[in-house]
Design goal:
The protein is mainly alpha-helical and about 725 residues long. It is about 50% helix and about 5% strand. It contains 32 helices and 12 strands. A two-stranded antiparallel ribbon has the order 1-2. Helix 12 (about 290-305) packs across helix 15 (about 355-365), helix 19 (about 470-485) crosses helix 21 and helix 24 (about 570-580) packs antiparallel against helix 25. The radius of gyration is 34 Å and the shape is globular.
Length: about 725
């Protein structure tokens, strides 16, 4: 049908008539019709197949990259013979600038790393030094002394000790304490290729040099330094602070240096992460650090002493004993000598009850840290006033420390006055008299002027006192923290109520620590406050290597005296970490694929939200709740870990590649519980995997379902959720 063309009068030039005629034309004119396709059908089909094939290949390559992580062969990771003798490895022991004092010392030994460390240490040493620690005379001396004290403690209490644990149990303890997870099957197989005598030591050195240790211990350290709360939104960056701590652990920064950096931090909290130690308290004041909270946090974190109650009143109940305890200053003097000194003026070591002044004089140090807007935290002169109980007005409070005041350097004015007096006396030719007068003005055993800088701010004075080598309570608090992280509970102490478990942040000054803790404290000081050496020393002791099982009735006194390893419930993050690792054959670390790390982060966050987290009070022993048991029995994490997943889950890999049913049971036990099954366990579960046994079930079950049930049962066992 030919198109209909309307007739338009040229004389009608009105806009309305033109638009109407155009509309009629558009409606009547039909589109052109294509007679035939110009491109053959087979070519279009081939192009479509090519495009979809290319897309499929790219998708498979991406998925393979995410799942595999492009990790090297495990034999190449753990083959320590491939390391060149001239290769430089990470240095994990800081070296003192000067010669250390006589006493218990450690030798620097490099350890092979299980995984590459991205946060490299600034100090390195050659790997030509022996990897074995058998020739380390310093550690051998400490280990021998600890063993003698351990056996003497058991003999004094008339207790028998359990035998030493097997290497796999000790390695599981190390993994739970240092990285918060159990052993992976990859780690177990690599250690089985080594001589049994070297397996524990090799595994410990790999963990100490891994990123997992740096980040896990940074998280644990941040909890008692700044708490587990989010803090003020603008002025606190918790993730930056934890990352900074991980960098310090990677560099093996000395503990005393770490404390000094935290106490004297200056700058913006985003540029200088250590400033977050102060800015986390900004929500208590007017955009300024809260000296009250900082004083309480400092005493708990760095001194292991609770003096919070002294904020409002003196100690009326005798709960806080301050002063220089005899076990710190008397150095083992007998009772007769101490009684004789008590009647003289030289009795600075005597204990006394705490007062309000003790707390607020310590808080006065932190008023020197003031906020300067965009410039961040700046250091000024401490200016602190407080109205004590029963007083009518506020009074200025001078910065001071609650005990061992002889170790605190004088304030800047005093330093300058003493220098001016010495100069004037020298000009008058009376240097000897000025020297004698100078000695009288200084406190007894005060640091020499030549040992200190010309000017020390108030916070620097506090940091100097906290990290002084003679401040044993501070070093004892650090040793107690490390001990608690390794054992899961603080060391036991003698109290008026008997031998009982102590507290990590409430160490009494009125009674000496146990001989083992005192030895570790001295060794920690002599090693220049090296945390890794302290970890090696504790984990080499028989208290850490002893078994939790014995052929006699185990009582609470056996666990307190370390006659057996104390059985403690795993913390929330340890339960989650061990469960997530149990679902993988390979070790989950920062070299794992992005997909695995993302899944680990999501599963861990969701599990902790449902399971519960004690926060900074994570070492408080509490019974397992019904909610926690239900989360383990019916929770998403456990079901996904045990369920079939041929791409990621260990249970599916075991089902596909195990040689026989017994091999399935053995591998499952190694993956989840990090031990070999007993003969009875092996026979029972191997029988359930046979075809005849599966067909007897109602309804019949598959082999895959039986392996899933086995993994689920092991994850919900009491053995999995407890450190033993």
């Amino acid at each position: 049908m030919p198109p209909i063309e309307p007739t338009i009068d040229p004389s009608d030039e009105s806009p309305d008539s033109f638009e109407e005629s155009s509309l009629v034309t558009a409606e009547l004119v039909s589109p052109p019709v294509v007679d035939a396709e110009l491109v053959p059908g087979w070519k279009r089909a081939l192009a479509s197949v090519g495009r979809w094939g290319l897309l499929l290949v790219l998708a498979l390559m991406t998925f393979g990259f995410l799942c595999s992580g492009l990790s090297p062969d495990p034999s190449e990771i753990f083959d320590e013979s491939r390391i060149s003798p001239t290769e430089v490895v990470q240095q994990d022991d800081s070296i003192s600038d000067g010669a250390g004092p006589d006493g218990i010392v450690f030798d620097n030994v490099a350890g092979a790393s299980i995984e590459p460390v991205s946060l490299r240490s600034s100090q390195q040493e050659s790997s030509s030094q022996p990897n074995s620690r058998k020739g380390d005379a310093g550690l051998a001396l400490v280990a021998k002394k600890l063993e003698e004290q351990w056996r003497a403690e058991l003999d004094s209490r008339d207790l028998d000790s359990a035998p030493m644990a097997d290497w796999m149990t000790v390695c599981r303890r190390l993994s739970l304490a240092l990285v918060g997870t159990g052993l992976s099957l990859e780690e177990i197989r690599s250690l089985q290729r080594l001589p049994e005598a070297d397996r524990v030591e090799t595994h410990r050195e790999r963990l100490l040099n891994s990123d997992r240790f740096h980040h896990y211990w940074a998280e644990r350290t941040a909890r008692y330094l700044v708490g587990a709360d989010e803090g003020p939104f603008i002025f606190y960056r918790g993730r930056r602070f934890r990352t900074w701590l991980a960098e310090q652990y990677a560099k093996n920064t000395r503990y005393d240096e770490l404390v000094r950096m935290l106490i004297t931090a200056e700058g913006v909290w985003t540029d200088r992460p250590e400033v977050n130690f102060h800015t986390v308290t900004f929500d208590s004041g007017e955009n300024a650090p809260d000296p009250i909270r900082l004083a309480a946090r400092t005493t708990r974190a760095f001194l292991g002493v609770r003096i919070d109650c002294l904020q409002c009143h003196d100690d009326f109940l005798g709960n806080v004993s301050l002063g220089d305890a005899s076990w710190i200053m008397a150095c083992g003097a007998d009772d007769e000598a101490m009684n004789a000194a008590a009647g003289t003026e030289d009795a600075s070591w005597l204990l006394r009850e705490g007062s309000q002044e003790d707390f607020h004089s310590l808080a006065a140090f932190f008023t020197a840290a003031t906020s300067e807007g965009v410039q961040g935290l700046k250091d000024k002169r401490a200016d602190y006033e407080y109205q004590y109980l029963y007083e009518d007005e506020t009074v200025p409070v001078e910065p001071n420390v609650p005990f061992l005041r002889d170790l605190l350097p004088p304030r800047p004015e005093r330093q300058r006055e003493q220098t001016d007096e010495k100069d004037d006396a020298a000009e008058q030719g009376d240097a000897s008299e000025a020297s004698a007068e100078h000695v009288v003005e200084q406190p007894k055993n005060a640091p020499e002027s030549s040992e200190l800088p010309k000017y020390l701010s108030d916070r620097e004075r506090l940091a100097y006192w906290l990290t002084h080598r003679e401040n044993k309570p501070a070093a004892r608090a650090a040793v107690t923290r490390v001990w608690t992280l390794l054992f899961g509970q603080p060391p036991a102490i003698e109290t008026d109520h008997g031998f009982q478990v102590g507290e990590v942040d409430n160490l009494p000054l009125d009674s000496p620590p146990s001989p083992m803790i005192e030895t570790l404290t001295e060794a920690f000081i002599e090693s220049d406050f090296n945390v890794r050496k302290l970890i090696r020393c504790i984990t080499d002791s028989p208290a850490f290597r002893v078994s939790s099982r014995a052929d006699f009735d185990v009582t609470e006194q056996h666990e307190l005296a370390m006659a057996v390893f104390p059985v403690t419930h795993l913390r929330s993050e340890q339960v989650a970490g061990a469960a997530i690792q149990s679902g993988r054959i390979k070790t989950i670390n920062r070299d794992s694929s992005f997909l695995v790390q993302l899944q680990q982060f999501g599963s861990l966050t969701d599990f902790l939200k449902r399971y519960g987290d004690l926060g900074e009070d994570e070492f408080t022993q509490q019974p397992v709740t019904i909610t926690q048991r239900l989360v383990m029995l019916n929770g998403k994490l456990i079901s996904e870990t045990a369920g079939p997943n041929p791409v990621l889950n260990a249970s599916s890999h075991i089902e596909m590649f195990a040689r026989d049913d017994e091999d399935v049971v053995r591998t499952s036990y190694l993956t989840v519980l990090n031990r070999e099954p007993s003969e009875r366990e092996l026979a029972h579960f191997a029988e359930r995997l046979t075809r005849e046994s599966r067909e007897k079930n109602d309804p019949p079950t598959s082999r895959k379902q039986e392996i899933t049930d086995l993994t689920w049962a092991l994850l919900n066992s009491s053995e999995f959720a407890w450190n033993h």
